[in-house]
Each structure stands twice: as structure tokens, then as C-alpha cells.
Amino acid sequence: MTISIWRYSHLVLAVISSLFILIASVTGAILAFEPITNQLQPYAVSGTNEISLAETLSVLQQEYDEVFTLEIDNNDFVSASVITKEGDSETFYINPITGEKLGDIIKKAPIYEFATNLHRSLFLKTTGRVFIGVVSFLLFLISVTGIQLILKRQGGIKRFFSKVVRENFDQYYHVVIGRYTLIPIVIITLSGVFLSLEKFDLLPDSKISHNYPEQDDVEHKLDIIEFQTFQDIKLEDVSYVEFPFSDDIEDYFTVKLSDKEILVNQYTGAIVSNQNTSFVALASNWSLILHTGQGTILWSIMLLLASLAILFFMYSGFAMTLKRRKETSKIKNKFKKNEADYIILVGSETGNTFNSAKLFYDALIAEGHSVFITALNAYSEYKKAKHVIVFVSTYGEGEAPTSASNFEKLFQKTHQKQTMKYAVVGFGSLMYPDYCKYAIEVDEMFQMQDHFVEHLPLFKINNQSFEAYKTWIKQWNERTNHDLKIKFQKPQVNLKKLKEFKVINKSEPNNDDSFLVQLRPNKKVKFESGDLLSLYPEADFIERQYSIGKIENDIILSIKKHEFGVCSNYFNNLKVNEIVKAQVKRNLDFHFPTDVKDVVMIANGTGIAPFLGMINDNQSKIKTHLFWGGRTQDSLSIYENIIDSAFSKKTLSSFHIAYSQEQKDKIYVQDLILEHQDLLSGVLNANGVIMICGSVAMQNRVLEVLHTITTTHLDKPLSAFENNDQLKMDCY
Ligand SMILES: Cc1cc2nc3c(=O)[nH]c(=O)nc-3n(C[C@H](O)[C@H](O)[C@H](O)COP(=O)(O)O)c2cc1C
């Protein structure tokens, strides 16, 4: 629940201040170039830590008729205001060792003048300055709420920089870029607020006031070069020197240093007054440096990047909000709640789960059913319903998402009259210790009430996996004897991008209707075991993907033939030397790890394909254990040669098989995993990697077993290893 408060505050603040933030960040990005271009000018003087103030002041006195001021700015440019020997009053950059003029003071370019005015006051003078000050504070609050949201999402400060689940482009980069730029943005906004407060005299007075003790007349005036005080001060510590107004002994040198201001007797060089700079003045100086980037190219570049990041956050933040609204507002029920046979209840925080529920709703409607879809928070009595299907995500630490926050109470006090069948689909992420916990709770609530009968067991979906969702639809279809068709967006095919691959070999389908295809690219194509081969059959141009095993330079695919499968039958009918047009899609998260000591591979059926490549290409001979589940011994025969070859090359350490049909008691790959739990926990404990490929159903069973193993042997949930990139999965 608290997460939605943070998200709501984040959004409201962003909406209120968006236009001004837009102006401030565009002008901020432009202004970031000013200190960069300034610093590229050749006026910076090096070695100011070695030059004494006495040397510079003395040389200036010799070089010019009169000297008024000396200034050293944040760029280390030294400028002096003087009357030249020719009698001209001028201010210019000087060389502090020779005193000679280096160049004229840089004039602010009109673009920077314009951007500064807009940035500071929107050309509205005081009113504008107030606005900008307030907006700066709002942006500070937005950054703080943003940091809070990232902390919640990632599960604490320790995991601030750990892996981010990628749901879509906007969400992913909003979080990833946010992690790197929010702290600089907090600094920029706080310094901006400070500068505004200073402008409106809202800070304690930081002016230094000196005591002016009476000075005794002295007969001999020392040369500046002889002033011990100035000899002891290095130029790098000086920001400003004002020369005495007249020869009067009560007129002094005023010297501003980084942390204090001193008055120096112009005859003796003695310090007359010494006052420390106030905290407010120091903070104000730092605010100016941090807000404008003066003096450091690196920080100026950071300011530029932060300004650009703010623009991206505005775009991606609003895009996410619009998408969320669209997902939740597009529910237009055709049937009333008391007319419908099917009730779909949705619990979602950011709208993703609504999307999956809506696809199911559309498919049921297309089949001619009466369906009513609503949020879990709107749960009530349904007079005619026969089926309740719940799609629900988990948020916070295993809690209900916003649109299900009230469901438990409603469920307890609502009593349905007729008996209904229920099915719960949980959406979550394996990166959280309480994987799909709220869905588990909802499932239990249904189990406890008499009027509900389980239609399908609880089904969990990791990271909104569409493949897993399709598996659940398949289970639904099998259970109901229907052929519900989910309409999903076809990925756009760019036929020009398809490459040609020649069929080198193809085995005949075995008892399981599985066969191997060996393809060779006609031209050079970059691919690795674990990448995907996308095909777009002419019948529908819908993308079908197969996991690639790379052996030498060929692609090995393991395919299961389905009676009416367009693509599997296309492959099965291929003859040697025929050409297949397809595209390789990189699947970087599912490549063989080369920087670990142990790898365990777990597959069932055709999921073995990428591993066939990996076990043969394991050049650094990493200890590799393959667990595979098949139906019968015959299922293995098409892979046997490749596995034997890996054993003889010593690139495979062990191979464990579970045949489900060879004996009375069925054995599955998850049973093998449990049997070898010491090996599995040992590999994880030693930072090894577990890879899983095959059916989603197998994946879910294996994950349950792995979770039991990690909690009992290693005292950690499986999510800890998922977050540490020790779990790689590609299931369908
Ligand atoms: C802050 C935060 C906390 C989460 N907590 C959990 C959790 O405890 N268990 C889990 O399985 N998934 C958790 N998730 C993952 C979400 O359930 C997952 O991203 C889901 O797809 C979101 O669906 P929705 O956008 O429809 O709410 C969390 C996600 C976020 C951002």
C-alpha cells in the first residue's frame, strides 16, 4: 500500500511542476556547456599552489600604474582591474607570475545570457525567481520520492544497484538511469533552492564585519614582496584582493581567502583583522559551484547528463502513467456482473496484469461466453457465475497490489449462492523472496470457502512471461476442452533482415515426435548457444522462436512436431540443402557463463538444444552437469552422439536422466534435482550458475525444488541467487 502513496506523490509533484521543470532542464542542459567552453579557454594558470600572493601583487604593482582588485575565479583564471601605464582603466585576465595581460574577460554569449535569464526567473523577475525556487524544491521532492520508489522496488539500499527486471523500455530505463542520476539531481535541486533562498535574503546574514583597531603611524613602508603575511598565502587559497583606497594607514588590503577574510596593513603587512567566513557564505559558494559546474568540466558534464535525464524521466514517467491508465480504463464490460458466466478478477499495481487478464477476457468473449471483468477490490456477489478466474500480482514484500488491497475483507463478507469453479494465476518476480505470495494467499482463500471448487491449480508467472502465460492458456484449454485463442500483438517482421540458412542434416521424428535440424548460415552470422532463431512462416507471419545450440559453426535445433503445428511441420518437411529464411535474436541473458567454476544445466524435452551446443563449446572446461528429463530411452537417442562427444572432450562432467515413462513410478527432472540437492546447493554456494531450459511447467516445479534446497541448505531464498545472476532461464 505504501508504495502507491510514494508513486502517487511522485506523479502529482511531477504533474504540478512539469512545464517549469521542462524549461529548467532544457536551459540547464544548455547552461552546462558554458563552464565547459569557458574552461577550454587558455587562461587557467597552473601551479597556483606554489605562487605566493606577495609575488603576484608585487609584480602587478610594477607592471601597472594602479591596481584596484585581483580576482581568482573557480576556473583558476586570474583577473585584475588596473590602470595601465598608458592611463587606461581596464580589467583583464593576467599571468600571475609576470603580471602581463593574457586576454579580455570572457563575455557571456547571448545564448547563455538568454538561457540564464529563463533558467533563473523565466524573464519574470522576482515572481519568476520565486516560481523557479519552488519548482526546484518540488524537483527535490520528486527525486526523494523517486529514490524511495527504487529502494522499494529493489528491496533495500544494499540492492539499490542490483539487477532490474525489464518489463518495458520506459520502466526499465526510468529505474536504471534514475539510480545513477537521482543523487546528482538531489544535489542540483538543493543547491538551487539554497541559491533562491539567498537571493530573497531568507538566510542568516553572511556578511563579514571587521573590527577596525586604530593604527599607529609608521615611518617606513615595506615593499609588498616583503609582507610576511602575503608570502605565507598561496594564490590557490585566494579568491579576491582589494587594494587600499588611499595611502591612509587606516585603508587596508582586503583579502578574501577560501575560509576567511583578512585586512592587512598596507605599510607593515600585519594582519589587522581576521574573520572566518560564515557557514552560510561557504554553503552559498559551494551551492554556486555545484549548481553551475563552474570550475570542473567533470561536474559540468554530470549536470548536462542530469538535465537530459530529467527530460527522459518526464517522457518515460508520463508514458508509463498513460499506459497504466489505458490498461485499467480500457475495461468496457459487455455484460453486467449478474449476467455473466465467467468472472475475471484482477489485482494489479501498474497495469501489466490487467493486460493479460484483458487478453483472456477478449478470448472468452470471442468464443461467445458472457464475461465480466473487474478489479479484485470490486469483488461482490455474482448471481449467475460458474467460473471465477483471478489474475493477481504481488507487491511490496509479498503484499496485495493496489487494486486488490481490500479484497480479503470483501471476500470474507461476501457469500456466493451457487458453487463456482476458480483458477488463480499469480504474477510476480523470482527476484523477490516472496514469489507470488499474494496469489498463493488468494488461492488459499478460495480453497477455504465452500462455494468454490478448484478448476486449475495455482499458476505462477515470472516477470510477465508471455510464454508462461501461453502455457497456462494451454492448461485451461485442456481442462475445458476448448480452443481459446489469445490474440497477441504480432512482432513486426522485417523480411529484409532475414538471413539464409542451409539444411545440413535432419533426423526423423522419434517416438516423441522430436527431431534435430542442423542449419548452416550462408553468410557470416553472429550467434551463440542460447540465442534464439526466429522464423516467420508464410501462413501467418507469426514469429516462432527456437533455442539455438551452436556446434562448430552450425545451428542445432531440437523441434517437437505438433499435428497441426505450422512451423514444426515446415521443419519436418525440409530436405537436406534446402534454404530456411530466419533471423538470429541475441539472448544475452542465456549465454554460457565463462567466469564461474560450476554450471548446472536443467532441461526437459527439446529444451536440451542450447545445452547441446554449450557442453561441446565449454573451452575452459568449466565443471558442467546436465540434468535432463525425457519420456523414454528412445527420446534420448537423437542427442546421444552429441552428449558422448562432449564426454570424450571432457567438456561435460556429469549427465543425469529422468525417464518419466520407463518405470511404474514416474520420475521427473525435479525429482533428480532433489536427489542431487547437495550438488545443487554446493554449486550455488560456490557462486556457480544454474541454467534452465524447457517447458514452463517443468521450470515451475524445478524452481520450487530449488527454493526448498536453498532455504534448507543455504538459509537463503532462491531469489537471493536470482538477484546474484546465478539463475538463467529460458522456458516456453
Ligand atoms: C516494489 C515491487 C515489489 C514487488 N514485490 C514482489 C514480491 O514480493 N513478490 C513477487 O513475486 N513479485 C514482486 N514484485 C514483482 C511484480 O509482482 C511483477 O513485476 C508483476 O509483473 C507486476 O504486475 P502489475 O504491474 O500488474 O502489478 C514486485 C515488484 C515491485 C516493483
Characterization of this structure:
The chain is of the alpha/beta class. It has 3 domains: 2-38 and 110-204 and 292-322, no CATH class; 330-480, Flavodoxin domain (Rossmann fold, 3-Layer(aba) Sandwich), CATH 3.40.50; 495-731, Nucleotide-binding domain of ferredoxin-NADP reductase (FNR) module (Rossmann fold, 3-Layer(aba) Sandwich), CATH 3.40.50. Helix content is 40%, strand content 21%. The protein is built from 20 helices and 26 strands. The chain has an 8-stranded antiparallel beta sheet with strand order 4-3-2-1-5-6-7-8, with helices on one face. Helix 2 packs antiparallel against helix 9 (297-329) and helix 5 crosses helix 6 (169-199). The longest helix is centred in the middle third of the chain and has 33 residues, at 297-329. The site of flavin mononucleotide (FMN) has 26 residues, from helix 5, helix 10 and strand 12.
